[in-house]
Design a protein that fits this description.
With 359 residues, this protein is of the alpha/beta class. It folds into two domains: 125 residues, Aspartate Aminotransferase, domain 1 (Alpha-Beta Complex); 208 residues, Type I PLP-dependent aspartate aminotransferase-like (Major domain) (Aspartate Aminotransferase, domain 2, 3-Layer(aba) Sandwich). It is built from 13 helices and 13 strands. It has a seven-stranded mixed sheet, with helices on both faces. A four-stranded antiparallel sheet has the order 9-10-13-12, covered by helices on one side. It has a two-stranded parallel ribbon with strand order 1-11. Helix 3 runs parallel beside helix 10 and helix 6 runs parallel beside helix 7. The longest helix has 26 residues. The two termini are 34 Å apart. The relative contact order is 0.18.
């Protein structure tokens, strides 16, 4: 299976002959200020856990997650990252036809392809800031009749945020279609409690995904959750292998949920500081005739390059300076004039801006 994600520092390090730690990874969408203080020390104390099998069904963290969101644990799935859930969904729900709102995370399409699902796409236009109109989405669903629809909110790679009422309207207009709303980047908006569809909708056709990997910067631990109707959860359980959440991931998730005040403070600091960095990058590039920055609600930004510049050319020029960005030419709905950058601290964001302005 072709890997088309960001964060491939190991391949670049081998190619240019350096240690992966020497590469400034601005291609993977992670919190530049994580992991939270205290987590690494806690995990060191739990290293003995690797000598035992973790809970087969991760019930402990499912119950904790359910308690935080006011839902029944029977409606919660915990897995080896949200990607494992995405890949389980087409088979679990016997999907025949899927619709993906693009540009979007490539694994929605890949997961459907693996199961032989007929996958359709609704493209948003850069002229509209890559925002999808609810009316257009509803019309497309009625015309194409998919079994399942994948929507990322805020969207990767565009950073576009869709209001909750708009998404609810789309779901309610199509009760026989399953909607997968991926909220992995919603904590970065500062409006998670207001916009999340996690626990208050009562819809029977809604699967909501969320990840601890991005906001807490623990992608190596792989922790993802789905909240969905009990019937869908029961089907998903049959396609999520036992022990999918390893012992250290289970311990980390439990610790983060037990220390909710700390986690909330960490997220609030992240939202404020990432917001400052978004404004810095946007303002710094505003006068460039060769780079257009799209507004973003997440921890990353989509950039459109001017004529004469290509995403591969920019990628290679920055790679030579040990800076890794995301070449977006293989995103459906984009082209070789788009790149995505994951925001980091001011030092590295300034370095990136200077390199881009001098290409």
């Amino acid at each position: 299976m072709e890997q088309v994600h960001g964060g491939n520092v190991y391949t670049l390090a081998r190619r240019i002959g350096c240690d992966p730690c020497d590469i400034i990874d601005m291609s993977s969408n992670m919190n530049p200020f994580g992991p939270p203080q205290g987590l690494a020390e806690f995990l060191k104390e739990r290293l003995a856990d690797i000598a035992m099998l973790p809970e087969a069904d991760a019930y402990g963290i499912r119950r904790a997650f359910a308690g935080l969101h006011g839902i029944d644990p029977a409606r919660v799935i915990a897995a080896n990252g949200t990607t494992q859930i995405i890949f389980a969904l087409p088979a679990a729900l016997s999907v025949r036809r899927a619709l993906v709102l693009v540009p979007a995370y490539s694994d929605y399409e890949t997961a459907c392809s693996v199961c032989g699902v007929d996958t359709l796409f609704l493209e948003a236009s850069g002229n509209d800031g890559f925002a999808h109109s609810a009316d257009r989405v509803i019309d497309c669903i009625r015309e194409k009749a998919p079994d399942i629809v994948f929507i990322c909110n805020p969207n990767n790679p565009t950073g576009v945020l869709t209001e909750k009422e708009e998404l609810l309207g789309i779901c309610r207009a199509n009760p026989d279609v399953v909607f997968v709303i991926d909220e992995s980047y919603l904590p970065f908006t500062g409006r998670e409690h207001e916009l999340s569809m996690m626990g208050s909708t009562g819809l029977s056709n809604l699967v909501v995904l969320t990840s601890m990997s991005k906001i807490f910067r623990i992608p190596g631990l792989r922790i993802g959750f789905a909240a969905c109707p009990e019937k869908i959860a029961a089907l998903l359980e049959q396609h999520i292998p036992c022990w999918s959440v390893n012992a250290l991931a289970h311990a980390a998730a439990g610790w983060l949920m037990e220390h909710q005040d700390m986690a909330d403070g960490f997220i609030a600091h992240t939202v404020e500081t990432v917001g400052e960095e978004r404004r810095f990058v946007s303002n710094s590039l505003q006068g460039s005739p060769d780079i257009h920055v799209f507004p973003s609600a997440a921890c990353f930004m989509l950039l459109r390059l001017g004529h004469g510049m290509t995403s591969r050319g920019v990628y290679e020029a920055l790679a030579a300076n040990r800076i890794l960005i995301r070449d977006c030419s293989n995103f459906r709905g984009l082209s070789n004039r788009y790149i995505r950058i994951s925001l980091k601290t001011r030092k590295y964001n300034r370095m990136l801006v200077e390199k881009l302005c001098n290409l």
